[in-house]
Amino acid sequence: MSWLIVGLVVFLGAHSVRIFAEEWRTRQIERLGVQRWKAIYSLVSVAGFALIVWGYALARQSPLEVWSPPPWTRHIAALLTVLTFVLWAAAYVPGNRIKAALGHPLLLGVKVWAIGHLISNGRLADVVLFGAFLVWAVLAFRVARQRDRASVTLYPSGPVHRDIATIVIGLVAWWVFAQHLHEWLIGVRPFG
Length: 192
Hints:
By secondary structure, the chain is mainly alpha-helical. It has helices at residues 2-14, 17-20, 22-32, 34-61, 73-92, 97-102, 105-120, 124-151, 160-186. The longest helix has 28 residues, at 34-61. The chain is globular and about 45 Å long.
């Protein structure tokens, strides 16, 4: 469990600089340059992510049950992850109405993903992992929306085909991940 926590601190810590130390981040970018900052940020993020994966795998070897979720919660998690993937797609497809309305669909997607997994998983490692991401996403979303309001940032929407593309990309990505990649990467088959 300790490696999972270290990984979360490193990964979410790197991703929390804009939440807790925006001015420090700006000074570091000015001092190092954008490319060096991005390189360091990426290395720290990858290291943190690797520690999360490793720590989570270790914690799953001796699981500690906090609660036993009913089987139907897996269906709720599946539905919430569909929404998650659409929100994540909305973060990257330019000019879609979902991003225009929500501002930060990636962060909302992380919240939905974490809630879905908290509902359907009752082991301590799950609560720590998904709970940490939920807390981080709530804080990050709040700060990002405050930053948008302060700078009067608006996210433009384009033609309806971008909305359709966002939804299709999200659904296809969800299907591929749920049917093939989740078991390969996580070791759990979501549907059986």
